[in-house]
Amino acid sequence: MKKKRLPWVIREVGKIEVDQRVVFARPSLSEAIALCVQVSGLEEKEVYLSLEIDAGHWTRIMKGDAHFPVNKLNNLMDLCGNEAPLMWLANSRGYGLVVLKTEAERRAEMAERALREERDKVRFLTELLQGKAAA
């Protein structure tokens, strides 16, 4: 899945692994969202400007007095480089997360497997020709 660049991103954050125990210890999705931002190292202003959220509404979100716009959750996680809100939500519903392989990754694995098999055949035939293989 190709990651879209957000229109007002001030700086890029690399992928950050967040310990699931830290995420699951949060009592609410709002707290998981706050953790997502905190772990990113971004300033809150960078986040709400990049996500095009009004500063006042952002303040209310962070206080727990307003809801985070659900349609911006993927953009938040892309921007912050971690999946803390998704991890929290899945766990709260009794699910775990598994990263799905892309079609390109599946094809690469199949090609690597086929290459290994062919190399094994070549090695066997070479050893057979040199008299080293057990008959």
Structural description of this entry:
The chain has 135 residues and is mostly helical. It folds into two domains: 20-92, 434 Repressor (Amino-terminal Domain) (Orthogonal Bundle), CATH 1.10.260; 100-135. It contains seven helices and no strands. The protein has helices spanning 20-24, 29-40, 44-50, 55-63, 73-80, 84-92, 103-129. Helix 2 (29-40) runs parallel beside helix 5 and helix 2 (29-40) packs antiparallel against helix 6 (84-92). The longest helix has 27 residues, at 103-129. The chain is elongated and about 80 Å long. The model has no long low-confidence stretch (mean pLDDT 88).
Q: Using the alpha-carbon principal axes, give the shape.
A: elongated
Q: Figure out the total of helices.
A: 7
What top-tier CATH class of the largest domain fits best? Mainly Alpha
Which range best describes the helical content: under 10%, 10-25%, 25-40%, 40-55%, 55-70% or over 70%? 55-70%
CATH topology of the largest domain: 434 Repressor (Amino-terminal Domain)
Distance between the termini: 49 Å
* Oligomerization state: single chain
Strand content: under 5%
CATH architecture of the largest domain: Orthogonal Bundle
**Poorly predicted runs:** none
Estimate the mean pLDDT confidence: 88
Structural class: mainly alpha
Order of helices and strands: HHHHHHH
Rg: 23 Å
- Secondary structure: number of strands: 0
The largest pleated sheet is described as: none
